[in-house]
Design a protein that fits this description.
The complex is a heterodimer of chains A (358) and B (293). With 358 residues, chain A is an alpha/beta fold. Chain A has 12 helices and 16 strands. In chain A, the strands form 4 sheets. Chain A has a 7-stranded mixed sheet with strand order 9-8-10-11-12-15-16, sandwiched between helices. Helix content of chain B is 75%, strand content 3%. In chain B, helix 1 packs parallel to helix 6, helix 1 runs antiparallel to helix 11 and helix 10 runs parallel beside helix 12. The radius of gyration of chain B is 19 Å and the shape is globular. Classes of the chains: A alpha/beta (358), B mainly alpha (293). At the A-B interface, strand 9, helix 6 and helix 7 of A face helix 1, strand 2, helix 11 and helix 12 of B.
Chain lengths: 358, 293
């Protein structure tokens, strides 16, 4: 197996050590080959070529970004190498006709769709403002949200797009405040997400009017204690209602090692080797085509949360999302708590996901 | 219920002021160096970025208080500029058409610094926030301005005022202006021109560092700010008139308000291009700049 990504590598090594994957599969030890792609698409592609042509791996796993995953996608499809991506939300990775690529993370357009469904349930007819940075991921989320807003009988408030490299949102936050929306969806890039959030709060927007489509530990802590009451979407959180015993152990071990709770990204990395092992067991062989077919037919659950794992004909995962509300935060201790307020599952193509984002 | 138009108007006013003051200060640093040494510093944007990046590392990774980090970077900027002047800049003082040589040399520095930033800070984060020097907001009428941003505004205006007074009334400032105007005549009047060059480079670089630090106090930033601010400072210098601190002040403020106004009436994306368009229009009307000496 060829592996990218620090956390993914740790999980695979843990798997080899036998704590989750029983030390091997089909009576043989699992062997993992690791290359650091430096988060560089060119290097990622070169590494994929090396994994395939020289090492003859069964499956390539990683990376944890859409840019790098897209760089490998074409190679994997053309050369018929199974490619299991833990974290990459750009929809076109599983566009119609995809044969060899599978993705654990739901597509970003669906995240936007789910925000509308969340708000529809929370406050029918609500008015939603959108503020987002002009990056592919943010555009995809906004596209899903804008598509679903009228279908959920909601109203679109101001829509504000920030160019890449933006660092101030004072005027736009004021414009949003002046429009009096019920909710503001904030999708900023990096620290700019914190800037927009804080400027909205400065202007008197209430924390429980702010929805972040996704939240992982470091950016939740970046929003700061003022954001207690805000909502965020996630695919795993240490405060989920349904965390299993294994999930609790994963959270405890991760927190001891890293000084903070894991978020959904680490959970996808945790889950990936388990999915690979199950597919090999079901295939009963290390033939690539049979392994691919086994992945397609896989019906399993995340061992940390019990959420179903199944892929559609294009390798897209059956989508799901949780919405959490932050209930307390101690930034210095890198701790926060949140309560689960919404959960939904849906088929990826319940919205025209591949038409909304090209 | 506060009038939404009043809120938006005040947000435009404060944004224009903060942006304009930082633009003006940074452009003043660029124009002092260009006007005196005839050095079009293509690396000014990278210098602008270097200061807050170091302050970010000191305050977040090493746990320094933000005030201490900002002060340390400002002080460290002086030996940095001194070494650069001694090792590189002064070698070109007597080269004919040295502005072209300087431009090429500083382009090289730009590339080197840009590469260094991307393999160091670029690997550690994609956006940077210096912890605030002061928490909370200050109300300007009904509009809440973050206290940190108010400090940045006051700091920029104070530095601009000090620059203006210093260049006009201090002995060094008068000598520097004399070299601006005619270096041969200044030398004949007993001004040590090479010493003034050194002073101008130290002053200009420190002012650019201060601009970067104040910007980072007011806003989050990423590595791309080096390019956008480098171009903006150059544009302000050219429109204001190369070597004119007054020009930098007036045009910097103008650009800040243009950006804020376009942001209100069009979009943030249009705002980032608006002042460059303003530059083209002004240069069409006054090709040598508004305050050309």
């Amino acid at each position: 197996m060829g592996v990218f990504g620090v956390e993914l590598r740790r999980r695979h090594e843990a798997c080899r050590g036998g704590d989750r994957c029983g030390g091997g599969v089909l009576g043989r030890p699992l062997r993992f080959l690791v290359i650091d792609n430096q988060t560089n698409p060119t290097q990622a592609l070169a590494a994929a070529r090396s994994f395939d042509a020289q090492d003859k791996v069964l499956v390539i796993s990683g990376p944890t970004s859409s840019d790098n995953a897209l760089a490998i996608y074409g190679y994997a499809e053309q050369n018929q190498v199974p490619f299991l991506v833990p974290v990459a939300a750009f929809p076109q990775l599983t566009k119609p006709g995809t044969q060899w690529t599978f993705r654990l993370e739901p597509a970003a357009v669906g995240w936007g769709y789910s925000i509308a469904k969340f708000v529809e349930q929370k406050k029918p007819g609500a008015k939603i403002a959108i503020m987002y940075s002009d990056f592919a991921l943010m555009r995809a989320i906004a596209a899903g949200l804008k598509y679903q807003i009228p279908r959920s009988n909601l109203t679109a408030g101001p829509e504000i797009v920030f160019p890449q490299g933006s660092s101030d949102a004072t005027i736009q936050a004021t414009q949003v405040r002046a429009a009096s929306p019920d909710y503001v969806v904030v999708i900023g890039a990096g620290a700019f997400d914190n800037t927009i959030t804080n400027q909205l709060l400065d202007l008197g927007v209430k924390p429980d009017q702010i929805i972040h489509p996704f939240g992982f530990t470091t950016n939740i802590l970046g929003w700061g204690a003022r954001s207690v009451g805000s909502y965020f979407g996630t695919f795993f959180d240490h405060d989920l209602d349904g965390v299993t015993a294994e999930g609790k152990k994963f959270i405890k071990d991760f927190a001891e090692k890293n000084g903070r709770p894991p978020s959904y990204i680490e959970n996808f990395c945790y889950t990936t080797p388990y999915v690979i092992k199950q597919a090999i067991e079901q295939a009963g062989t290390v033939d690539r085509a049979k392994f691919r077919d086994a992945l397609r037919a896989l019906q399993t659950k995340e061992t940390t949360s019990g959420v179903p794992i199944a892929f559609d004909k294009n390798g897209a995962r059956q989508e799901y999302i949780y919405y959490m509300q932050i209930t307390s935060m101690d930034v210095a201790k890198k701790e926060y708590s949140a309560k689960q307020v919404f959960y939904m599952e849906w088929s990826p193509e319940v919205i025209p996901v591949y038409d909304l984002v090209k | 219920m506060v009038d939404p138009n009043l809120l938006i108007g005040l947000s435009m006013l404060t944004t224009g002021l903060v942006l304009g003051a930082i633009f003006a200060l940074t452009a003043a640093g660029v124009t002092i160096v260009y006007g005196c040494i005839w050095l079009p510093n293509a690396a000014s944007g990278q210098f602008f970025l270097l200061a807050p990046l170091v302050a970010w590392s000191l305050s977040t990774a090493m746990g320094w208080s933000p005030i201490l980090a900002v002060a340390a970077v400002l002080i460290a900027g002086l030996p940095f500029a001194y070494l650069l002047e001694r090792l590189l800049i002064r070698r070109f003082y007597d080269v004919p058409d040295r502005n072209i040589a300087y431009f090429v040399v500083t382009l090289g520095i730009t590339q080197i610094l840009s590469g260094v930033f991307s393999i160091t800070w670029g690997q550690w984060s994609d956006q940077y926030n210096i912890p605030p020097l002061a928490e909370g907001v200050v109300f300007i009428g009904p509009f809440p301005l973050p206290a940190n941003r108010l400090i940045a505004l006051v700091g920029a205006l104070a530095l601009l005022g000090a620059l203006f007074v210093g260049l006009r009334y201090h002995r060094f400032g008068r000598a520097l202006r004399a070299v601006f105007q005619n270096r041969e005549a200044a030398a004949l009047r007993g001004v040590d021109v090479q010493r003034i060059y050194l002073g101008a480079f130290l002053l200009g670089t420190s002012v650019i560092f201060a601009g970067g630090l104040l910007y980072a106090m007011a806003y989050s930033f990423d590595l791309s700010v080096a390019w956008s601010m480098g171009i903006t400072a150059f544009a302000i210098m050219i429109v204001g008139g190369p070597g004119s601190v007054l020009g930098a002040l007036v045009v910097g403020m103008l650009f800040g308000f243009v950006q804020a106004a376009v942001s209100v009436f069009a979009s943030p994306t249009a705002a980032t291009l608006s002042y460059l368009l303003a530059m083209l229009v002004i240069l069409l009307l006054r090709p040598s700049g508004l305050f050309a000496r």
